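User: Show me an example of a complex going from sequences to structure tokens.

Assistant: Sure. Here are the input components:
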Amino acid sequence: MNQLYDVIIVGGGPAGLSAAYSAWENGAKKIIVIERDRELGGILQQCIHNGFGLHHFKEELTGPGYAHKCIELVKDKPEIETLVDTMVLDVQNNKTVIAVNPEKGLMKLEGKTVILTMGCRERTRGAIRIPGERPAGVFTAGAAQRMVNMEGYLPGHKIVILGSGDIGLIMARRMSLEGCKVQACLEICPFSNGLTRNIVQCLNDYNIPLYLSHTIVAIHGEERVTGITVAKVDERMTPIPGTEFDIECDTVLLSVGLIPENELSRGLNLDMNPLTNGPVVDQHRETSLEGFFAAGNVVHVHDLVDFVSEEAEIAGKYAALKAQGKLSADNRSVKVSAVDGVRTCVPQKVTLPAEIPADEKIKLFMRVAAPHRKVKLVVKSGENVLLSRPLPVAKPSEMIAVEIPAAKFNQIGDEITVGLVL
Amino acid sequence: MAVETRVMNCIMCPMGCELTVTIEDGAVTNVTGNTCPRGAIYAKNEVTAPKRMLTSTVAIEGGVLPLLPVVSADVLPKERILDCACYLRGIKVQAPVKTGDVIVENILGLGINIIASRDMELHAQ
């Protein structure tokens, strides 16, 4: 069963669905979205809290509400096909996609372009090497979220949360609402990695203590977790002897970071960025391999799904144009380097045709390495300043976005830098 | 006259603007630091009568999942959030349900409806 698609999209979460809709809007005639879960919408279906969609849909939505809007955009369009309960096994560099599902068995799909929108997954206990026993009761926050919000059972009753990322904070409130006791939230960094609004409404509202610069040094229990030992850490994040204390709990939830899910990208030997853990992309979200695009959390972990949709729309548009042969050939490429306090910047390169479209704008998304107040973000090429913007507050947890007219790239060299001036 | 300034973070959206709120005799007289009008409203409520949205789940029978996510149609008094969540733990509805269907009318007499935040189709037998 061989069919030639304009665009094959791997992953049916918000990125995949937004990319599909955008590809459709930009003239692609045969689009397919492949999702491994039993329904479309991705991880949003378990994120039942509100706060999504203010930028993208101009209204405040819950996670399932946002997913619903994305699904509505792609359904009933003859040009867009969706497959659920289908696992992509391999993506080959000739744009052949091998997938399997229980109904159709093994499938081979061929595309003119492929968009990778596999999202990300959680770091686990193994990834951060917590010492101690190996009892039941240690879960990632997202796994617990799925149990509580979709499957109908509680992972435990007396909870400690390690990590103050947004999922951990959201789960602190969620478990409290379900009648559990959340004993504490521990954060190894001297600052929280979650949104301020979540510290306020998920911890402070429920009187849950947040211990900054603290971590778990041991998990206790034989069959089930019975408690943990916590210690303060120094500036090198090493536990300080003598500062240990115990907290009783039957469950430990880990919210210790997300990893873009790039097994398929690595299989394709795409150039990867070691800091974002995602493929290197240009402003169209095209990867190092022509015709392969990537968007959303698979490229870099976002804090807002609204920005995932925005990025996926870019990928969808340019994949559609590429499939139709409407994307002008690249003439030269400008490297985008994160320097001086900026940890990551996406895209990592800007590719320019001989004639730069007058209306094109290049949007850069970046994260700072540490929290700052009253700094300036400066984008420059050598000594030529392309953009300078004052930032009242800059936090690693909150992505910063700036837009630069592509025309400004006319007279510059092979590299621009994005950095902070204190 | 007692004048107090309080610094708080707005929680109306993920921006989390830092607000400086001037309170004179228990009433908010000035708010700065907000980048949209919702910030001033939030600060006034937060000082006098804090309010929160509630999202939770209720049990559902016959659906593709055993739980239906729900959301309050508007903000509820903060001090009643746990009571409302506790009440929702005892609710069970029947599939199918459509996004926006009222699941609990006027929860605990607070004048706010609890609505479904997704469709839940019947599970094929």
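The lines above are the inputs; the final block is the predicted structure for all two components together. The interface with chain B takes residues 38-39, 45, 48-51, 54, 60, 62-65, 67-68, 148-152, 176-179, 195-197, 199-201, 205, 303-304, 393, 398 of chain A (CB under 8 Å).
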